[in-house]
Specification:
heterodimer; A: 169 residues; alpha+beta; eight-stranded antiparallel beta sheet; 2 helices; elongated; B: 166 residues; Umud Fragment, subunit A; two-stranded antiparallel sheet; 31% strand; LexA/Signal_pep-like_sf (chain A); transmembrane (chain A); Mitochondrial inner membrane protease subunit 2 (chain A); mitochondrion (chain A); Pept_S26A_signal_pept_1 (chain A)
Chain lengths: 169, 166
């Protein structure tokens, strides 16, 4: 009988911890790994090997920005890919609604209402708005504020605004 | 001696308060998880879904399981985060999934001109039931699947409209 009550209390504790953890990760903050080198040199600066998941960066994702959906230029955000909702991408916001963005194919487009223009820091290998266009702000899952792992690279993520990429009016 | 008694009294009160706070926090967490992952009530109003839903405001139950499993299909009424304003959630009906060919007319009251597009990968085509007064995919194009927040399955208010939504 003793082992059964022990199991019951263990299950109850696991349930509580899961509940609280899920709520915190949904509403306040969570920690996610960064895969791939599309945001290098900000994340994963060294060229990653095929099996090199050990040197992935882990970043802190804050969710307070989702209450108002207020973002600024240069924020790094995590969002679900518009072509595959199960895939999460991490990119930097270049343009906000109303901005004019110069794309690399020499045309200028206006970011529509409720959308944003996202690009990776690594201009060479990045699947971003250059291939799928502006994304709705509603796809954004959170804003990256800090790198938490590995220890030597711990620290804040600066919001870097590329010069001359957008003009707002 | 009196100090010790005083401290022990206060510590027991503090312990009691802490445990009560913990119970409330646990309850709020349970509420959040239920709302976000299982099912939640939603108040909807507006003319865009008129024959199905009333103008003045209905309370619907939306479940949040099937869109995570990818089990929503054409004909389902879904809650979608509006692509024009991410703070707003709109209620529309899915008309086409990715790869479907959709024919629509932008303004059915005045012209008969018809456009045809193919819904791109990972997107859905949503429309209101009231084609005359609905801002939907005909205006802002197909929306990414990731914007779907839940699937409406039942109406709970007003009482005469209680029941499953077809």
């Amino acid at each position: 009988m003793g082992s059964r009550s022990f199991l019951w209390s263990l299950a109850k504790n696991y349930f509580t911890v899961g509940l609280i953890g899920l709520t915190i990760s949904d509403r306040y903050a969570s920690i996610v790994p960064v895969r791939g080198n599309s945001m290098s040199p900000t994340f994963n600066p060294q060229t990653s090997t095929f099996l090199g998941s050990s040197d992935d960066d882990y970043v802190l994702l804050e969710k307070f920005c989702l209450q108002k959906y207020k973002f600024s230029h240069g924020d790094v955000v995590v969002f679900s890919s518009p072509s595959n909702h199960k895939e999460k991408l991490i990119k930097r916001i270049i343009g906000l609604p109303g901005d004019w963005i110069g794309t690399h194919s020499h045309d200028v487009i206006k970011v529509p209402e409720g959308h944003c223009w996202v690009e990776g820091d690594n201009l060479l290998s990045s699947m971003d708005s250059k291939s799928f266009g502006p994304i709705p702000l509603g796809l954004i899952n959170g804003r990256v504020t800090h790198i938490v792992w590995p220890p030597p690279r711990m620290g804040g993520v600066e919001t870097r605004i590329p010069v001359g990429r957008f003009s707002s009016n | 001696m009196r100090v010790v008694k005083y401290i022990s009294e206060w510590s027991s009160i503090a312990k009691e308060a802490l445990s009560q706070t913990f119970i409330v926090a646990k309850f709020l967490c349970l509420l959040h998880v239920t709302n976000a992952y299982i099912c939640s009530p939603t108040l909807v109003f507006g003319p865009s879904m008129l024959p199905t839903l009333n103008l003045s405001g209905d309370v619907l139950l939306a479940e949040h399981v099937s869109h995570r499993l990818g089990k929503v299909g054409p004909g389902d009424v879904v809650l979608v985060r509006s692509p024009l304003d991410p703070r707003k959630i709109v209620t529309k009906r899915i008309v086409g999934m990715e790869g479907d060919r959709i024919s629509f007319s932008l303004d059915p009251s005045s012209t008969d001109s018809c456009h045809t597009i193919v819904v791109p990968k990972g997107h859905v085509w949503i429309q209101g039931d009231n084609v005359y007064a609905s801002s939907d995919s005909r205006h802002f194009g197909p929306v990414p699947y990731g914007l779907i927040q839940g699937k409406v399955f039942c109406r709970v208010w007003p009482p005469y409209g209680f029941g499953a939504l077809e």
